[in-house]
Amino acid sequence: MTEAAGRRTGTARRRTGGATTGPSIPTGRRPVDWSGPAFVIPFVVLGLIFFVWPVISGFVLSFTNHSLTGLGNTFAGLSNYGEALTDPQVWETFGQTVMFTVISTIPLVLIGLIMALLVNTGVWGQWFWRLSFFASYLLPSAVVASVFVWIFASDIGLADSWTAALGMDPVGWLTKESTALWTIAGVTVWWTVGFNFLLFSSALQGIPLAMYEASMLDGAGAWRRLFSITLPQLKSITGVIVALQLLASLKVFDQIYMMTAGGPNGSTRSILEYIYDTGFTNYRMGYASAISYVFFAIILILSLFTYLPGRRGQR
Questions:
Q1: What is the DSSP letter of 136?
Q2: Angle of CA points 81, 244, 181, to nearest 5°
Q3: What is the C-alpha separation between 96 and 260, in angstroms, rounded?
């Protein structure tokens, strides 16, 4: 059998000039694989239609006197931007938006961190606590606003019934200028803190257990481990959460519009609500677009200030 195989091999070599033959290599062009672009193109088209085009058209609109009534659609140049920079309503509503951002962002970050630390201690029924803390975030804004409008309703609301049981006068949670914005901020904290809790919980689970075991061997207590291991390891995710929360709070609109519509006396009116009223109530779409891009520039600058320090820290 071996001699026969050798004779066949020798014959094949003589036919090919003594060289062994290998796998054939195609000499033509490689066919194009369209499977990847076929998956990407629909998302690119949707992004162009619903994101890129509105951004471009809104920017062009900000240089005109466009109105929903169809009258006075003329080129305005930079007059809309000049009016936006000198409009006292723009800066008043922006100040109230910043105030809301401050009084909501701080508790949202701190409470989310505390909740995550408590659950991560190994308390019984962790799945139940995680579900309970995150469930409120799944509720639509309309549901949250409707429920709390009834809770904080004057005289007949649940909150005023509690204060009456304590012998206190009705507070006027949503009807007094001094309390309305704080009340909405408290509702926002209850509603959205679950998202920050989820991010902190994921980061806590990523801390190596070996670091805690080594510190315990060195005699470190619970508080020492918290301030020397846990919090430093959460530094990067905390920066991300603060940046996301600042941007989300600056864009507040839904709960304010549905709970107070900017009242009382405009004390809770956000800048986005002013943009909405300018464009869809006063029909000045060109001016509303200019205010939007001024606000967009402010958010962009703020995003850079929150992003660059984190990049320097990573280097």
A1: G
A2: 70
A3: 14
Averaged pLDDT score across all residues of the chain: 86
Contact at 8 Å (CB) between 292 and 277? no
In our burial notation (b when 16+ CB lie closer than 10 A, e otherwise), range 106-130 reads: ebbbebbbebbbebbeeeeeeeebb
Whole-angstrom distance, CA of residue 14 vs CA of residue 20: 10
C-beta of residue 62 within 8 angstroms of C-beta of residue 54: no
* pLDDT above 90: percentage of residues in the chain: 58
Closest CA to 234 of 110, 62, 150: 110
Domains, the chain? 86-314 (1.10.3720.10)
Q: Write down the H helix ranges in 136-264.
A: 141-151, 158-165, 180-205, 209-217, 222-225, 231-233, 235-250, 254-259
Residue scoring higher pLDDT (11 or 103) = 103
Amino acid at 262: G
For the stretch 71-86, pLDDT in tens is 778 888 899 999 999 9
Mean pLDDT value across residues 90-103: 95
Classify residue 137 by its DSSP letter.
Answer: G
Among 155-164, 186-195, 223-232, 288-297, name the one with the lowest average pLDDT: 155-164
Q: Which amino acid is at 301?
A: I
Task: Please name the residues in contact with 59: beta carbons below 8 A apart, sequence gap of 6 or more.
Answer: 289, 293
Helix and strand numbers, DSSP H then E, in the chain = 16, 0
Q: How confident is the model at residue 26 (pLDDT cuts 50, 70, 90)?
A: low
Query: CB of 275 within 8 A of CB of 288?
Result: yes
User: Number of C-alpha atoms within 13 angstroms, CB side, residue 56?
Assistant: 7
Sequence letter at residue 117: L
Spatial CA neighbour of 91 closest among 233, 262, 274, 214: 274
**Residues of 133-172 as b/e, b for ≥16 C-beta within 10 angstroms?**
bbeebeeebeebbeebbebbeeeebebbeeeeeeeeebbb
